[in-house]
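Continuing from the previous page of notes. For each protein in this section, the sequence appears first, followed by its structure tokens. Read the first protein now.
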Amino acid sequence: MEGMSYTLTYHFYRLRAADYVREYRDVEKFEAFCKECDRYDNCWVCPPYERDLAAGLQTYEFVSLIGTQIVPLLEGKQNAASGQKKQITVWQLLKEVRAKLDPCLRNLEIVYPGSRAFYAGTCHLCPEGQCRKIWRLPCCHPEWIRPSLEALGFDLSRTAEELLQVPLKWSNTEEWPDYWMLISGIFTRSEVNLCPEIFE
């Protein structure tokens, strides 16, 4: 991306699905955060849902978590715009990484039949503010969309720090963080051994 250079490092952690659901999910707490966002009930991958998307997660044997660590390089920091333009640059950066990451997760669903992938964050398929749910119309890309782990009530701060061993960092309009962390996952019936090459 023009004006922003970065490196990617992948962190993986696998555990029993039932353990992750029991120890790291708090629907009431995180749906309250979702309600403060303008995407709540206005985006097909965000709460509230017409059906319980988390139903049956404990019937999977394992969940493999993928932490994608995005480290901005020094020259990228120096060349990036400030203020609101900086936030736009970050948004574009995350979309760029997700454009590579999300298809890899969908491919894992094919490689491991019966599995279920969850993206890192909200949907980027439609232009900002133009999800058809706003007008109560069906999704344009139902075969491509997946909800995020946080949208289903999983605590990603604890997931990052306790399981992936890389605490989340937060950015603002004035300063870049040392890195950004995207957390996605896939629930499977069998053990999955992930490696960085899958996502490159």
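Done with the first. The second protein uses the same format. Note its length before scrolling.
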Amino acid sequence: MPAQQPTTELDARYSSALNPRPGASEVTATAWAEAQGRLETAEIFWVSTVRPDGRLHVTPCIAAWHDGVLYFSTGRTEQKAKNLAHDTHCALTTGANSLTDGLDLVIEGRAEPVADRARLEEVITAYETKYGPHITSPEGTFHGIGDSFRSGDAVVFAVTPDTAYGFGRDNGVYSHTRWTF
């Protein structure tokens, strides 16, 4: 099911609102619509899962935001799949690699395998629309991923956000936004 609209809160403790820099007093929470736009266009995400022994596992992946849900996939025998079979809690992060500009996003939730065929086709379309020739061209890095989703060789997970965070940087003015669903 699509995520509901979250409550939005600026956390001034970690924002420039408490720092006397120029522009800091006007810092505001990032709108959820802006965060969603970034989720729709971000190409690389980092998924964090927990191993059965409690150690963390973090790895890059591609993902698609569709109808308020973030989708990613992994092979059935990969460490992510093993970890999620034990504990469905995970976080997906994306953002910029700059100290002064950008917006980093963290989506926390539970990864649920997608079993519904109609939903799976929607996710495949979302991936193909987002990543284009990387998926649709025979020369593409991820060509054939849709077929691996359909055959079950790759598991597609849906993460409906429980909580999300946005860490904004605008020319050195920082904001920390929390969205609660």
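What the second structure shows: The longest strand covers residues 154-170. The chain has a mean pLDDT of 93. We return to this in next week's lecture.
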